[in-house]
Design a protein that fits this description.
By secondary structure, the protein is an alpha/beta fold. Helices cover about 30% and strands about 20% of the residues. β30 and β31 form a beta hairpin.
């Protein structure tokens, strides 16, 4: 997409809430790690002095400093968390180019060393570092001492198998402690981790792993989900056949099966002479690869995104320690899988000394309240989930505050899609009026957040609290002008340490530059519509590459979803805007209905009415069409662009990669619909 595609500014956002839904009390502000960091940075690194009694002004001043003096800010983060990267007066940012920033030249570190340092404290060694939970909801602790021993033993085993710094190690594993140990041991050796969840089909896994050519594969025999057992031995065999670079396969018997021929059992690999020894951590440069994550890959091979050991270490310390206010004594639970960046983010809770909750199971089995029960059973301090799950709980009549004991949970965070204002209010009303609600937004691309949680700021319904420290987030107009209280392209104008080092197999960084820097040279353009409000909040409106443009007025699809899905009859929806050859514009709305609901004329008119009244008469759909479901990526994002391509006449094979879709049958449904209808607008018009 080029600037020429943005001639017309998006529709202005609805007015923000006048009063905050929640405001932290004076003690919460005073005791926040962010407040302590501000005082530290002011006394030692030139940050502006805190503003007594005015946390809003204090954060605004701190944020301004953090993006205008990046070198001082990141040296302050290094000093505050004791990472030692700036020792000897080493600069934090030697080259501020974007892309191509050079961080802490000459520094050497190891991510796993920092993740496990709390286990070296004798007073904490027997505290839980991990809590394993499955659908039985019976937490099983793994102590810091056990985690250090297992990591050390596995790292030694990898070295014995010839794994060296820079080699790739892959995991086809669920969210279990063995996966955490495998990642940490890989990092300890200086090798590069990559993973997929075992619900990924073999073809989808090979689309990812074949790009990076792993030498070791950790593979589970199966998993349990939704009350069922899912055997993955055939998929593992297919993956092994498709990876000729493998030298070792490690079998993780979650279902209790013996290792297949040529594979070693996980327990045997981690046993032996190294079991009682301390881990050995390979010192690596700041920009040494830590892991490879993948884009959704819905329209081709997924991008293989490389993040550095140092970049992730600093960014996650900042994000989890300062923004999420996590530290020793906290328990950190986020519903995720190993195929989503939030799993990597979750494990970084170890960096700040928090106990990490690893839940392996369905998000809604045996009923929609199960995630809340995990938070209750584990006494999670911060519980993260998807906005879609929150809205599903609201529709299902879940009452967490009434029916469960959740006093330990002081923050609920959401991501994956924008949390609608009704979602904020539901959490406030149904969980606790004293609940800190942190809607956050970032991406796999940086494995972190651009905007979201700030423990010292008020929460307004429908808004992310603020841009994160060290993140110069702006909303750009088509000409690159920063906008306030107007919708624009979400951009970041200064480098972040967790921006990708590169894409794997991308000579000359061609694909990397095209992905983020082609629209505004030297500025990261993320591909979301956003509004930066006058009070400093952030509103996300959805993907800018799936914009709805009716009569020159643009609107993000997330705004449509927020309005339509308040109706109890609508389980989920998908809206597409199609430019037609004759110059017309067709905007259908596809709805997946709740059980028992019927898409009759009355419901169609109610849908049209809520869009007309809450958003814009111009964005009332031309047609409302019932569908059996809405297709998503494997990490839960709606497939707007592939469906649009199908409706424009593209072949299914060219519109999307079926291996990157949660239900390929739904794409076949849309392909069949496109053929039957020829993208013709029906005579029903609900826009009047």
């Amino acid at each position: 997409m080029t600037a020429a595609d943005h001639r017309n500014a998006p529709a202005p956002p609805p007015p923000g809430a006048a009063e905050p839904l929640w405001r932290p009390g004076p003690h919460a502000v005073e005791s926040a790690r962010l407040t302590r960091f501000h005082a530290y940075a002011a006394s030692r690194h030139g940050a502006p002095a805190p503003v007594p009694g005015d946390p809003v002004a204090a954060y605004a001043a701190l944020h301004r400093w953090s993006v205008t003096d990046l070198d001082a800010f990141w040296r302050a983060v290094d000093g505050f968390f004791g990472t030692g990267l700036a020792d000897g007066g080493r600069p934090a940012l030697a080259e501020p180019a974007m892309p191509g920033a050079r961080w802490f030249p000459g520094a050497r570190l190891n991510y796993a060393d920092h993740a496990l340092r709390h286990g070296a404290d004798p007073e904490r060694a027997h505290e839980p570092a991990l809590l394993r939970v499955d659908e039985r909801l019976e937490p099983e602790p793994v102590s810091w001492a056990e985690l250090r021993r297992a990591t050390g033993a596995l790292a030694a085993a990898l070295r014995r198998r010839g794994v060296r710094p820079g080699d790739r190690v892959a995991g086809y594993l669920p969210n279990i402690p063995e996966a955490a140990v495998a990642l940490l041991a890989t990092a300890a050796v200086g090798a590069v981790w990559t993973s997929c969840s075992p619900d990924f089909a073999a073809r989808a896994v090979l689309d990812r792993f074949q790009q990076v050519e792993p030498v070791v594969l950790f593979a589970v025999d199966g998993y349990r989900y939704g009350g069922w057992t899912h055997d993955r031995t055939a998929a593992v065999e297919e993956i092994r056949r498709g990876l000729p670079t493998l030298r070792s396969v490690v079998h993780v018997p979650l279902l209790g099966t013996p290792p297949p021929p040529g594979a070693a059992a996980f327990a045997e690999v981690t046993a032996g002479q190294d079991q009682g020894g301390e881990p050995v951590f390979e010192p690596v440069p700041f920009d040494h690869p830590l892991w490879v994550l993948y884009s959704s890959g819905t329209t081709g091979l997924p991008k293989a995104i490389v993040h550095s050991q140092g970049g992730i270490l600093l960014e996650h310390l900042k994000q989890l320690g300062l923004h999420c206010d996590l530290g020793p004594g906290d328990r950190f639970f986020w519903y995720t899988s190993t195929g989503w960046m939030m799993w990597n983010f979750l494990l970084s809770g170890l960096l700040v000394g928090a106990c990490v909750v690893l839940y392996d199971g369905s998000p809604t089995h045996p009923d929609p309240a199960v995630q809340w029960r995990v938070a209750e059973r584990t006494r999670a301090t911060l519980y993260g989930t998807s906005a879609a799950y929150v809205m599903a709980c609201a529709k299902a009549g879940v009452h967490p505050g009434r029916d469960l004991d959740l006093p330990a949970t002081r923050c609920v965070a959401t991501t994956g899609s924008p949390l609608p204002p009704d979602g904020f209010r539901w959490l406030h009303d149904e969980v606790s009026a004293d609940l800190w609600i942190a809607s956050v937004s970032g991406g796999t691309d940086v494995c972190s957040c651009f905007a979201g949680a700030v423990p010292t700021l008020p929460v307004y319904a429908g808004e992310l609290q603020a841009p994160c420290l060290g993140t110069d987030l702006k909303a750009y107009g088509p000409d690159g002008t920063p906008l306030t209280d107007e919708v624009g392209e979400l951009v970041v104008t200064t480098p972040m340490p967790s921006m990708p080092v590169r894409f794997w197999n991308d000579p000359g960084d061609v694909r990397y530059r095209e992905s983020y820097f082609s629209m505004f040279p030297g500025v990261w353009r993320h591909g979301d519509w956003t509004t930066v409000t006058a009070r400093g909040g952030v509103i996300i409106h959805g993907r800018s590459d799936a914009t709805l443009n009716r009569q020159g007025v643009r609107m993000g699809s997330a705004d449509i979803y927020e309005a339509v899905e308040r109706l109890p009859e609508v389980r989920e929806s998908l809206v597409i805007g199609l430019e037609q050859p004759d110059g017309g514009y067709w905007m259908p709305l596809f709805v997946h209905l709740a059980e028992g609901a019927v898409l009759d004329e009355a419901l169609k008119r109610r849908i049209a009415g809520v869009i007309r009244e809450d958003l814009s008469p111009r964005h009332v759909p031309d047609e409302v069409i019932e569908v059996p479901g809405v297709p998503h990526t494997l990490t839960g994002k709606r497939l707007e662009v592939p469906v649009k391509r199908l409706l424009q006449g593209a072949d299914l094979e060219r519109a999307a990669n079926p291996g990157s879709v949660d239900d390929p049958g739904l794409l076949r449904f849309f392909a069949r619909l496109a053929r039957e209808r020829g993208a013709a607008v029906s005579g029903d018009d609900y826009s009047r």
